[in-house]
Specification:
Elements: H1 2-12, H2 17-30, H3 33-43, H4 54-65, H5 69-79, H6 82-91, H7 104-112, H8 120-133, H9 136-147, H10 156-167, H11 171-177, H12 186-193, E1 212-213, E2 227-233, E3 236-243, E4 246-251, H13 262-268, E5 275-285, E6 288-289, H14 292-299, H15 306-311, E7 314-324, E8 327-328, H16 334-347, E9 352-354, H17 363-370, E10 378-385, E11 399-403, E12 407-418, E13 427-436, E14 439-446, H18 452-464, E15 466-470, E16 473-476, E17 481-486, E18 488-491, E19 499-502, E20 505-509, H19 521-526
Parallel strand pairs: 1-11, 7-9
Antiparallel strand pairs: 2-10, 3-4, 3-5, 5-6, 5-7, 7-8, 10-11, 12-13, 12-16, 12-17, 13-14, 15-16, 17-20, 18-19
Domain ATP-dependent DNA ligase family profile: 307-436
Keywords: ATP-binding, Cell cycle, Cell division, DNA damage, DNA recombination, DNA repair, DNA replication, Ligase, Magnesium, Metal-binding, Nucleotide-binding
GO molecular function: ATP binding; DNA binding; DNA ligase (ATP) activity; metal ion binding
């Protein structure tokens, strides 16, 4: 555990990506494969289900330290990270630990995982006993694992670079081996770094290729005829796999969505064995997409009812072919892949359709099509170089997203709470409202869009203008106005305002406006008329 804690600390103390990669590579080079497998698991964003309620951890800390509840909450508000708060508070009550350094895999498999089968009293005895035997750095990491909130400042891409450095493999190979279902075992770690490929799990998807935002005139890309254009659909990016008589549907976030879209799974049975399609899952009716909030009714249901299937029908709109007859065809050109994709989709069932390219002989014609995006329920266009292979990650140059300008509104800040990670000591997560008569009604939450100086300035203002506190959340004087941008808007029964916005972020701090100048709910609802299918 102590070597893992040291790695965590090294990663947390630097912003230099090369230093992060070097620290991870050094660790993987010498670590026990049983420990290294778990480190890969945690650093790539996978996590244990929360095994100990945070309320229990708070109670144990209060009993352990004898401090009042209000002091713990004040300390938590100042530190901003519960795991770190508990580690520091408990540290004040302990003598130097004996320091038996149990390996990480033993901690996870023999100690942490069995907590789910214990009574609260047994969990308390076990966890407080562990606190007493660990130094503060290891105790902090333990608390992170217990709360299920393990985060550290590395991306999957950096982990892949470190593993590639150790193994000598190409980063694309390592990325592919980390996709899909796998268990953090010594055998997995060995296979991950093995120069030889000893076969793959039939359910394993490919790494997704991601488009980059186009911020210049598309004419800079060259001749229009060298590019394929299609609508940028607002759904769930997914891969549809049909291998060895089984269907697997993977989201871009690497969630295996078994049973959630039975109409797509049924359609996949008509595909040839060894087929993998890339595309978008959309709520769809009568040849047109439905708003994203309709699709949300399907996302969380493992076995949708007949009523849900009827009210929220879905479709897999395929736009690329990654595997054909069991062969990886990603290195072929887009034109080659699309020529073979169309007949495959034609023979598939009703749950799969082809994302048709847009006919255009000039960039001006495509710009005119783009202007119709919102009325058709799309976010703009995707431009793909016809001679390009299917790459890994966000490699710039071959795929571009040419989106329409976002919706914008002016809203008043109502609430704020601490962020996560390096922002855990700053109030960076905000709730905004608009006027409904004489009242301000919350319409959006956002935590991105301000620069560091603005964040620090706003943090100071929030602390001096707090009206009430609800745990980590503060209500503030309704004075600060911000322009918010968002991609979509839809009716919502789950929100007090009756609407839900998609991907909200802060565009700018409107120092020139007072709260009375913010938009009204009626003005926001008028945007619904600009979205296809919203009525």
């Amino acid at each position: 555990m102590q070597s893992f804690a040291a790695l965590y600390q090294a990663l947390d103390e630097t912003n230099a990506t090369n230093d992060k990669v070097a620290a991870m590579a050094d660790y993987f080079q010498t670590a026990d494969p049983a420990d290294a497998a778990w480190v890969v698991y945690f650093l790539t964003g996978r996590r244990l289900k929360r095994l100990v309620p945070t309320a229990e951890l708070r109670q144990w800390t209060l009993a352990f330290t004898g401090m009042p509840d209000w002091l713990l909450e004040e300390t938590y508000a100042s530190v901003g990270d519960l795991a770190e708060t508990l580690a520091l508070l408990v540290d004040n009550e302990l003598d130097a630990p004996a320091g038996n350094d149990l390996p990480l895999h033993r901690w996870v498999e023999d100690r942490i995982r069995p907590l789910r089968h214990m009574t609260p009293e047994e969990r308390c005895s076990a966890v407080t006993g562990w606190w007493a035997e660990l130094p503060v750095a290891s105790r902090f990491v333990l608390n992170k694992l217990l709360t299920g909130a393990f985060r550290v400042g590395v991306s999957r891409r950096l982990v892949v670079r470190a593993l590639a450095r150790v193994s000598g493999l190409d980063t694309a190979v390592v990325t592919h081996r980390l996709m899909g279902r796998w268990e953090p075992t010594p055998a997995f770690f060995g296979a991950l770094l093995d120069p030889e490929d000893h076969g793959e799990d039939a359910s394993r998807p490919y790494p997704f290729y991601l488009a980059s935002p186009l911020e210049s005139n598309p004419g800079t890309l060259g001749l229009c005829r060298d590019w394929l254009a299609e609508w940028k659909w607002d759904g769930i990016r997914a891969q549809l796999l049909w291998r060895a008589g089984d269907c697997y549907i993977w989201s871009r976030g690497e969630e295996l969505m078994e049973g959630r879209f039975p109409e797509i799974e049924e359609a996949a049975t008509t595909l040839p064995d060894g087929t993998v399609l890339d595309g978008e899952i959309l709520a769809w009716r009568d040849g047109s997409p439905l708003p994203f909030n309709v699709l949300q009714h399907r996302i969380g249901r493992l076995k949708p009812s007949a009523r849900v299937l009827r009210e929220a029908p879905v479709l897999f709109l395929a736009y690329d072919l990654l595997e054909l007859d069991g062969d990886d065809v990603r290195s072929q050109t887009l034109d080659w892949r699309r020529a073979r994709l169309a007949p495959l989709v034609d023979q598939a069932g009703d749950g799969v359709a082809l994302s048709e390219p847009l006919p255009a002989d000039s960039w001006d014609a495509l710009a005119a099509s783009r202007e119709r995006s919102r009325e058709l329920g799309t976010e703009g266009l995707i431009l793909k170089r016809r001679q390009a292979p299917y790459q890994v990650g966000r490699v710039r140059g071959d795929w571009w997203k040419w989106k329409v300008e976002p919706h914008t509104i002016d809203a008043v800040m109502l609430y704020a709470q601490p962020g996560h990670g390096r922002r855990s000591n700053l109030l960076t997560d905000y709730t905004f409202g608009v006027w409904d008569g004489a009242d301000l009604v919350p319409v959006a939450k956002a935590y991105s869009g301000l620069d560091n100086k603005e964040i620090e300035r706003l943090d100071r203002w929030i602390r001096s203008h707090t009206v009430e506190r609800f745990g980590p959340v503060r209500s503030v004087h309704p004075e600060q106005v911000f322009e918010l941008a968002f991609e979509g808007i839809a009716e919502s029964r789950r929100h007090k305002s009756g609407i839900a916005v998609r991907f909200p972020r802060i565009s700018r701090w409107r120092h020139d406006l007072g709260p009375q100048d913010a938009d009204t709910l009626e003005q926001v609802r008028a945007l619904l008329g600009q979205v296809a299918g919203s009525g």
